[in-house]
Design a protein that fits this description.
- By secondary structure, the chain is mostly helical.
- It folds into two domains: 172 residues, Alpha Horseshoe (Serine Threonine Protein Phosphatase 5, Tetratricopeptide repeat), CATH 1.25.40.80; 170 residues, DNA Cyclobutane Dipyrimidine Photolyase, subunit A, domain 3 (Orthogonal Bundle).
- It is 50% helix and 2% strand.
- The strands form two sheets. The chain has a two-stranded antiparallel sheet with strand order 1-2. The chain has a two-stranded antiparallel ribbon with strand order 3-4.
- Helix 3 crosses helix 5, helix 3 packs across helix 6 and helix 6 packs across helix 10.
- It is globular, with a radius of gyration of 21 Å.
- The protein starts with a helix and ends in a 5-residue tail after the last helix.
């Protein structure tokens, strides 16, 4: 993916000076991992009160079963090119200045942080990714005294280094991709994925946000809901159906390779070089979710221990034959191999209870 991203930068002359990356670095990812701590005001987001009363009425009359919350009868995302351009302009003027810093952050009081909310408009082709990237880069070049390159590079990378890569992988690997399950995961999603009713605060918040807004940013999707689904060894068919159904920007060509490839590692590593799994420590590092959680992210096997902790080590042990030769997993397997057998047994026992009784957690 990184090589693809660099080729795209060169091909379309994005943030380039001759044949070198502007600023001297291709990637500022290490500057894009700050935790949001209520340091300053986040501008309110641009909402479009698109009247969808007739659409909702048609759905209700047809008896279509729905999920999520929808009370206002207005749709807040751009539905026309004009609205998409207004959204893009607002992002540049109000949000770009801190986008890169907090693009991976999560917070209970902030739904969107500094994210652009443009994915829906791009996926509906109201505005092209090239229009978006060109507009953002041009705005940055006019305001370089106020905006650091790490803010704009992080945004550009999401579009031409990630979104376009997923487009290529979808067309290159379909239709096989849609049925792959390399880790042989077979469990079902718990009921709380449709309600948000779980004592795990990170999942409750990310799922409720998704149900209320049809939205969650990439880290909430990858490292909260996706991470949990993979650790509980959920059938990727179920995970695909949930992601495709719940998000307003979920068009199959972008949703499927992200879910089945990057999030669930169901393609065996064709899209991602390792499974994106973590214990509770990563969630604590990037959010405030753990602060008011029923569970303690520092504990592993106690009744109030964060479920992600035992699920993580159980997953690594269960999937050893699939993952032991993955060079990016060697350090974690080295740690696992040094673990005392009785400690591993205790974590596997708790993990199995969680998997068998997910809605009790």
């Amino acid at each position: 993916m990184e090589n693809f991203y660099r080729d795209m930068r060169k091909k379309y002359d994005v943030l380039m000076v001759d044949d070198q990356p502007e600023g001297g670095k291709w990637n500022y990812d290490k500057s894009n991992r700050n935790k949001w701590k209520d340091g300053f005001r986040i501008p309110s987001h641009k909402y479009f009160k698109n009247d969808v009363v007739s659409v909702v009425s048609d759905i209700e009359k047809a008896g279509v079963k729905t999920m999520g919350q929808f009370e206002t009868k207005t749709f807040p995302y751009p539905l026309t090119r004009e609205q998409a351009l207004v959204q893009l302009k607002y992002f540049c003027e109000e949000l770009l200045i801190h986008f890169g810093d907090y693009q991976d952050a999560m917070h209970t009081d902030e739904t969107y942080l500094f994210h652009s909310r443009l994915s829906f408009a791009m996926n509906l082709k109201l505005v092209s990714p090239q229009d978006v990237v060109t507009t953002v880069v041009n705005y940055y070049h006019k305001h370089q005294k106020e905006i650091e390159i790490s803010q704009v590079e992080g945004f550009v990378r999401q579009i031409i280094g990630w979104r376009e890569y997923m487009r290529g992988m979808y067309w290159a690997r379909m239709p096989k991709l849609k049925s792959e399950n390399s880790l042989d995961n077979k469990n079902k999603l718990p009921d709380f994925f449709w309600t948000g009713n779980t004592k795990m605060n990170c999942l409750s918040h990310a799922i409720t946000n998704s149900l209320d807004n049809g939205y969650a940013h990439h880290i909430q999707r990858l490292m909260i809901t996706g991470n949990y689904a993979l650790l509980t060894q959920t059938n990727p068919d179920d995970v695909d159906a949930w992601y495709l159904g719940i998000y307003v920007d979920a068009v199959e060509w972008v949703q499927l390779p992200n879910t089945r490839g990057m999030s669930q590692f169901a393609d065996g590593g064709k899209i991602a070089t390792k499974p994106y799994v973590s214990s509770g420590s990563y969630i604590h590092k990037m959010s405030n979710y753990c602060d008011a959680c029923h569970y303690n992210q520092n504990k592993k096997t106690e009744k109030d221990a964060c479920p992600f902790n035992s699920l993580y080590w159980n997953f690594l042990d269960d999937k050893r034959e699939f993952l032991k030769d993955n060079f990016r997993m060697k350090m974690m397997y080295s740690v696992l191999d040094k673990m005392r057998p009785e400690n591993l047994h205790a974590m596997k026992k708790r993990a199995q209870h969680i998997i068998e009784h997910q809605d009790a957690y």
